[in-house]
Amino acid sequence: MKIFRVKGWFQKTWQKQMFVKELPALSEQQALERVFSEVGSKHKVKRRLIHIEEATEIKPEEAKDPRIKAMVG
């Protein structure tokens, strides 16, 4: 299982909300699908309003999210 860091933003009313998510996935496409699903569900935002700037694979040691560290460590 690989760890991905996805950076992006979404439009909520008249504001631009930035986000960074770290999550385990088998592929970059699976990680992006999960980000669209989680952000859309949590913030009630349509997928077309979610913009991904960067999706990179990171080493488990580079993760900042404590849940990811606990899972791999």
Q: Return residue spans where pLDDT drops below 50 for at least 5 consecutive residues.
A: none
Instruction: Determine the N-to-C terminus distance.
Output: 13 Å
- Quaternary class: single chain
For the biggest sheet, the summary is:
3 strands, antiparallel
Share of β-strand residues: 35-45%
Helix percent band: 25-40%
Average pLDDT figure: 95
Structural class by helix and strand composition = alpha+beta
CA radius of gyration is 13 Å
Can you count the helices? 2
CATH class: Alpha Beta
Question: Any overview of this molecule?
Answer:
With 73 residues, the chain is α+β, with helices and mostly antiparallel strands. It has a single domain, classed as Ubiquitin-like (UB roll) (Roll), CATH 3.10.20. It is 32% helix and 42% strand. The chain has helices spanning 28-43, 66-72; strands at residues 2-12, 15-25, 50-58. A three-stranded antiparallel β-sheet has the order 2-1-3, covered by helices on one side. Strand 1 (2-12) and strand 2 form a beta hairpin. The two termini are 13 Å apart.
Short description:
The chain has 73 residues and is an alpha+beta fold. The chain has one domain (2-72): Ubiquitin-like (UB roll) (Roll). Helix content is 32%, strand content 42%.
Which keywords apply here?
alpha+beta; 73 residues; 3-stranded antiparallel β-sheet
Task: Outline the fold blueprint.
Layout: E1 2-12, E2 15-25, H1 28-43, E3 50-58, H2 66-72
Antiparallel strand pairs: 1-2, 1-3
